Amino acid sequence: MVKLSGTRDRGFIKRAANAIFFVALFPSSPETDKIGLFLFTTTNKIREEFSMKAFVTVVGKDRVGIIYGITGVLAKSNVNIEDISQTILQDYFSMVMLVNLDNMTVSFDEIKKQLDEKGSEIGVTVRMQHEDIFTAMHKI
User: Fold this and answer.
1) Do residues 59 and 92 lie in contact, with contact meaning Cβ atoms separated by under 8 Å?
2) Distance in angstroms (rounded) separating the CA atoms of residues 82 and 67
3) Which of 13, 18, 27, 43 lies deepest, with the highest CB count within 10 Å?
């Protein structure tokens, strides 16, 4: 669950299968607490606004097979690469990918573990962060 606000007045969203639930928690009154449930299918515009994305960064000594190894881990878990940028700085490889996690077949923690293991195997450092955390950390 992702809270939209720190207060009880806003509510929260939850993704499940092909739907997004938004539960609105209205301010409590002496008589009752009101709760509203809204369901949006992922076939409409709401899906784009609430899609789960992450940044994957890869850095290390350049060698053959880095892109193949890292993208293979993502493909096995049905993670879609939406954008990718890579470069070689002297003898060092660096890559940043924006990936879509909507159809991922494993948990976020599991894919991070798999990427870390593959990175260790091929001699690079791999980091994966949710898009909102990455964006917040890089705001000036």
Assistant:
1) yes
2) 15
3) 13
Q: Mutual orientation of helices 108-122 and 66-76 as an angle, nearest 10°? A: 160
Dihedral, CA atoms, 65, 93, 54, 48, nearest 10 degrees? Answer: -90
**Alpha-carbon gap, residue 54 to 134, rounded angstroms:** 8
22 or 77, higher pLDDT: 77
Q: For 88, list phi and psi in degrees, rounded to 5.
A: -110, 125
Per residue in 58-78, pLDDT (tens digit) is 999 999 999 999 999 999 999
Q: Answer whether residue 43 shows pLDDT above 60.
A: no
Q: Which run of H or E residues covers position 94?
A: strand 92-100
Residue 63's alpha-carbon distances to 85, 87, 88, 114, 117, in angstroms, are 17, 12, 10, 20, 17
Hey, which residues does 2 pair with through a beta bridge?
Answer: 13
Q: What does the alpha-carbon distance between residue 59 and residue 87 come to, in Å, rounded to a whole number?
A: 10
Whether 108 and 42 have beta carbons less than 8 Å apart is answered as: no
